[in-house]
Design brief:
This protein is an alpha/beta fold. It is built from six helices and seven strands; from the N terminus they run E-H-E-E-E-H-H-E-H-E-E-H-H. The strands form three sheets. The protein has a three-stranded mixed sheet. The chain has a two-stranded parallel ribbon with strand order 1-4. Strands 2-6 form a two-stranded parallel ribbon. The mean pLDDT is 95.
Length: 154
Amino acid sequence: MPTNLYGPNDNFNLETSHVLPALIRKFHEAKVQGKHSVAIWGTGKPMREFMYVEDLANAIVFMMANINAKDIYENGISQLNIGTGKDISISDLAKLIAEITEFKGNIVYDSSKPDGTPRKLMDVTRINSLGWKYQTELKDGIGKTYEWFLKKKI
């Protein structure tokens, strides 16, 4: 079971995307248009975990090469969570994306909009104990994703 994923080929549509690609697009467009602020839904307090999509691909290859599903099921394990085991507030995520996109304006929180679940964090103890760990730190992955976004000019 993977956590929230992001990366190249993500959905950056402001109506249908998830929070991370939506924020990349919002901050980029605000910078290009010379806006002084970007509005974020909710209070910014909810915590979310994000993983770069290539790390998921690496985890899948690792599992195919190193894990016998029969052994796992016989030990009562029905799934392996795949993630970073680290979370970040939406507020801190917005600040990080503003930095990466070089947006210099203000971040405004629209508390009339819902926050959603307060915290979503995976327990990745099992997959880590089997020898797999994510490689891409959030700042680096967002940087790579933003570079892809700029090349595609979505």
